[in-house]
Amino acid sequence: MDITLYNTLTKQKELFKPIQQDNVRMYVCGPTVYDYAHIGNARPVIVFDTLYRLLMHVYGADHVTYARNITDVDDKINARAAKEGVEIRELTERTNAQFQKDITALNCLSPTVQPRATEHIGQMQDLISLLIEKGFAYAAEGHVLFHVPAMAKYGKLSNRSVDEMQAGARVEVAPYKKDPMDFVLWKPSSEDEPGWPSPWNEEGEKGRPGWHIECSAMAKTHLGEVFDIHGGGVDLVFPHHENEIAQSCCAHDTDKMANYWMHNGFLQVEGETMSKSVGNFITINEVLKDWPGQVARLAMLMTHYRQPINWTVKTLTEAQKNLNTWYNIVGELEEGEGALEINEGVLGALCDDLNTPKAIAQLHQLKDQPEALKASAGLMGLLEDSLSEWRNQAQDQPQLEEAVIEAAVQARLQARDNKDWAEADRIRDELLEQGIILKDGPEGTSWQVKT
Ligand SMILES: [Zn+2]
């Protein structure tokens, strides 16, 4: 079956042709491990896990290499470790362990390889040396910078003018920069920051890599100079992916770093941008305390990956209802039973630029075909448990988490402020349906669980 994918590079859907049929290679930017991952971080992990499963189905499980990195050297990590008064390694190990646990609960398979930045410093330094040798980078005051004007094709992925790029990158003007757009490949470290000796730091002093060079070096090490698919969230298009392309193409004299660039859309919570200051910041871990991982996974896949997603209690509730229905149909079928029964409609939808909403609609058509339902949902990482295992998971969970209820209460207040009474009533009724009673009083709105 042919797969078509939307390519950010060409702004169109294209027939997917791997460089090698027996080794399809995909790189996805992974987490910077300093804090709990939030549900926005879960989106690319679930989306590209679904693509990974599809590629393995189409090309064979042994013919796909999926690399997702772990950024374990970064200024955010240094700042957090200093704040908590813990060793950097302790913080990154703990956070990475939590991340792996969270995404395993979302039924995400382990990628073929999860390279760590700190284990690829040598490869990063080799890449930087190559860029200096070829005239694309220069050393200055303990830094090495990529000289953007040296690359004629810079900006092709994001398609922006230099002015827009400067605004988007919030470029730092520094005396050692030849051009304001030049970005850091290597920078000096103080004594309490992690650092490695390098040709660009004085004897006895150390430095550390910039974020962008980490991905270029790890992708080259595990997938080669040019590979098939590079993925990540749409927020990474510029500057991160643009800079990865600049580094990799200039170092290796190639026209492309990857043939297909794929980006998932933004995530909002109950119609609002997620932020710590608004108080609607939700971690994967919090979601998993209140919902089975499969519910969160299905809720994520109910929206097409390129569309913005609105993360709501309503969607989670709908996902849980769907899973209840489907599990009751498949009953106690064992995993792997009926593996040859994958429905053509489901497969066709997934091959069409990973059209998961269409694939899910197709699953609803399979109520008289339990084997096909289980096998087809399995391709999306769903219905992998038995009915009794599912019942255990679903029973353990309270239905709503506080942060989500609070977000709904806020959304209702907003609707009332806008005199959108219909929307305000809809939110109140929706909560009531889920056993949450709202009380409006002089002190504001409070809520309680219906007993
Ligand atoms: Zn990256």
Strand content: 15-25%
Ions, cofactors, ligands: which are bound? zinc ion
Total DSSP helices: 16
Count of individual beta strands? 15
According to CATH, the fold-level topology of the largest domain is Rossmann fold
What attributes does this structure have?
single chain; 451 residues; alpha/beta; Rossmann fold; 3 domains; 4-stranded antiparallel β-sheet; 16 helices; globular; binds zinc ion
Describe the structure concisely for a colleague.
This protein is α/β, with parallel strands linked by helices and 451 residues long. The protein is built from 16 helices and 15 strands. The chain has three domains: 19-264, Rossmann fold, CATH 3.40.50; 312-398; 400-451, no CATH class.
